[in-house]
Amino acid sequence: MRRRIAIPLLAAGTVASTLAVAAPAQAHGYVSSPPSRQALCAQNKVPDCGQIKYEPQSVEGPKGLRSCHAGIAQFAVLNDDSRNWPATSVGSSATFTWVNTVRHATSNWEYWIGSTRIAVVDGGGRQPDATVSHNVNLSGFSGRQKLLAIWNIADTANAFYACVDLQIGGGNPTPSPTPSPTTPSPTPTASPTTSPTAPSGTWTAGRAYQVGDVVTSNGVTYRCRQAHTALPGWEPPNVPALWTQL
């Protein structure tokens, strides 16, 4: 009788141990500006992205990889260069901003174009701010380029990955034409006065927010700092990188 009982208990222990090892680690960081591929998916700028749309911060894998999806099968769309990802026009340098929804102690950040590491920023093993920005020199490269940004964590063997499509040397957007001075301006029409801090509604998971949007959460008003699609757990009080309390 004891033998029959011991075998199921051992099996149950083995399964529990397996599940504990297999459970994915939480992942919490991505490049929001210029928008990385996962940021574009989260903002609905690129359709049919799959699961990455809901967790752009989760592209985590072992250090030393050179892929956009960190080897995660359900995020393979990020590695698909044929999807015509929108490219951001920049000059000879660009400032890259990370949104860190969990602020892991940091070894360093790396920036790669092809097989060339163009920049490395020391993290000193410290916990970063909720948002971190780095100005990266892009001289020596021109035209459309895919930049790989890597956030190496100090106290684990993992890193976070984000690919950003750039048009280097693309110039500034074409300015709007100046109205002719001989054309009379139309008489302005009075419009209702709207308070710049009037809430647009209660914060809701799954909704896409743009910079400047104003919401309420638990009776407190916040303004959006970074365009994003809200996820459960990203309530404004929890992510000062995304929301500013008014």
Describe the protein's topology.
Layout: H1 2-22, E1 30-33, H2 37-42, E2 60-62, E3 88-90, E4 93-99, E5 106-113, E6 116-122, E7 131-137, E8 143-153, E9 158-168, E10 208-209, E11 214-217, E12 220-224, E13 228-229, E14 243-245
Parallel strand pairs: 3-9
Antiparallel strand pairs: 1-4, 2-9, 4-7, 5-6, 5-8, 8-9, 10-13, 11-12, 12-14
What does this protein look like?
The chain has 246 residues and is mainly beta. It is 11% helix and 31% strand. The protein contains two helices and 14 strands. Strands 2, 3, 5, 6, 8 and 9 form a six-stranded mixed β-sheet that branches. It has a three-stranded antiparallel β-sheet with strand order 1-4-7, with no helix packed on it. A hairpin with a 2-residue loop joins strand 11 and strand 12. It is globular.
